[in-house]
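thread: overnight batch results

M.L. [08:02]
morning all. the overnight job finished for the chain we discussed friday. pasting input first so we're all looking at the same thing
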Amino acid sequence: MNNKAFIFDLDGVIVDTAKYHFLAWKKIANQLGINFTEEHNELLKGVSRIRSLDIILELGKKEATQEEKNMWLKQKNEDYLSQLADMDDREILPGVFEVLKFLKDNNQPIALGSASKNARPILEKTGILSYFDAIVDGNDVTNAKPDPEVFLIAAKLLNVKPENAVVFEDSVAGIQAANIANMISIGIGDKTILHEAKYVFQDFTVISEQFLKEL
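M.L. [08:03]
and the structure it wrote out:
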């Protein structure tokens, strides 16, 4: 295999932490008497915590002071983190481990490019931290996707040109960020939603070693 760099998003690509975010937000929404569904949760994908709260308040047509907002944001994060405390390797999405192992065995550089500020502890808890040569998370970037900053930093750390980087993403903003960075974008999820990606797979179990080699 020729060297390419492989950059993975975290939430919804490696682990399904989206369900934990959903439960934590739902708890806040319930307190405020706002009906918050899984469809609504799609609006929060790849969006910052502050903006997510504003979206929920808009859904319920609620006004709030900055003090109240800060309290809910803190509560949401604590609730989310307490759920993460019980994570282990069972949380890794199907096929991910096999792809990581295949890339590692073939000496391909691997990075994480995620907006999550909890990326390192999640990789530690799931036992796959050692597969990553570089980690770029919410603590390292100032601009959210679709700004390509997170992926450009990851490529630089892996010492490859953007056009030699392959990005695995599950959000539209993430795919757009990879495309803007001139990287090869691979969507993980629904073709109709991620149609801007160069390739789309339902999940990692359908990605063959042959496909990875040809990349």
